[in-house]
Amino acid sequence: MEEMPAVAPGPDSRGTRSSHWLARLSFVLAGLAIVILLAVAGVKSLAMLVVGLVAAAVSLGAAYVFLSRRGMVRWLAFAVFVAAPIAVIVVYAFNHLLWVAILSAALWLLAGVTARQALTGERPDWRMPEHPAQPPARHPYLIMNPRSGGGKVEKFDLKRKAEALGAEVFLFGGSGPVDVAEVARHAVAGGADLLGVAGGDGTQALVAGIAAEHGLPFVVISAGTRNHFALDLGLDREDPAACLGALTDGVELRVDLGKINGQTFVNNASFGAYAEIVETPAYRGDKMGTTLNLLPDLMQGQRGAHLRVRANGTRIDAPQALLVSNNPYGTGDIAGLGRRARLDGGVLGVVGVTVRTAGQAVDLLRGSRADGVSVLATKEIEVTADAPQIPVGVDGESILMSTPVTCTVSPGALRVWVPRVRPGVPAPKPPVDWARLRHLAATRESASTVPAR
Do residues 251 and 417 lie in contact, with contact meaning Cβ atoms separated by under 8 Å? Predict the structure, then answer.
């Protein structure tokens, strides 16, 4: 494939100078949080901190017991989970310290926000490069699922709007299953020079694989229920019709594709508890009840296959949940999951979670540093089990796969055309590194970083 010149992304709206001042502000806010505690609560401030941390640990431990046990123990744990934070509020209020706790917590929260903003400002290369969308498509072919997303295809009049732009549209019809991959192959054989999908992520992945196989551009129309792939491409999930702008005024992103036993995935493949639950027939009719019923056996190892994971010399034995993603997710929450700012890193993200006791559940407060959490990036991962087949959730669809299951990544395999004007992807949230922040706050801006007048 001939290499096309990249269109440089626009400049970051926040320069290095603002990063220095945001770092200083984060220290000021953190200092104020401590000063307020000491000035108002005095020696009680340490007791306040201890009570809050203990309550958080108790709540998390109770949540683990609730999910991993049945009967009266489960509901006692639920009562403790609810009562722990209420008890903290009562204790603070009784000692006339509730407002202090709220104010101090708010200042700590703002300090964390400004700290992340300061560190984000140092990362100018987080956007995927854009390339010209050329040559223009002469025979675009779009596959639309009218049932996806609660009927978004009809609601947003996508078929008519696409045909008005010169696209040929295949609309799912009837009650029988549709071989989407075969439809896409037939379209390519008929001269289609662009493929696109208005549907869920599972359908997107199937057609994306055909587009990549033939080197054709691919258009994502956010007409699914969750639209995770569209979200990480920066597309408008509220107005799927806006995605059609890729046909008339688009740019090209070169993104990676994941492969699991030869099948394409655009988001992730999940193993363990989630896959086992989704694979259960009762899940469709009663998601909450089925999940609560199966979790105890899954978390105690009494149900589901015994998984073994091998990647880059790292081994993970018997994880209760394993997520393999097409490029790593951000670090926005305790499990290390968030959004993917870039889909062109050429690696798979891996998150494995093993929690056998309430103590290990409490340890999850340490995030990715917890003993029960394994986070890594790799180009290939192998999952074996003590069963010939295991359920795997591939882009939200449950599939039985023969073991061993191998996941790989195909760097830059897919040419995605997206509208030039789109919501975009927010800057990823880096972990708060107070040592780096201290360096930023203490360093004086150089003349080159100060805007010229």
Answer: yes
List the one residue out of 145, 130, 339, 141 whose CA is nearest residue 225.
145
Tokens at 303, concatenated: 């149900």
Residue intervals in the chain for CATH 2.60.200.40: 268-411
Token readout for 24 is 């200083």
When the pLDDT of each residue in the chain is averaged and rounded to a whole number, the result is: 83
pLDDT in tens, 113-150: 898 888 876 565 678 999 999 999 999 999 999 999 99
> What are the φ and ψ backbone dihedral angles of 62, each rounded to 5 degrees?
-65, -35
CATH architecture of 268-411: Sandwich (2.60)
- Where does 136-248 sit in CATH, by number? 3.40.50.10330
Give the three-state DSSP class for 149.
helix
* Cis amide prior to 404 (ω within 30 degrees): yes
* Non-local CB neighbours of 168 within 8 Å, separated by 6+ positions: 139, 140, 141, 142, 187, 192
Name every residue whose Cβ is closer than 8 Å to that of residue 375 and which is 6 or more positions away in sequence: 336, 349, 350, 351, 352, 368
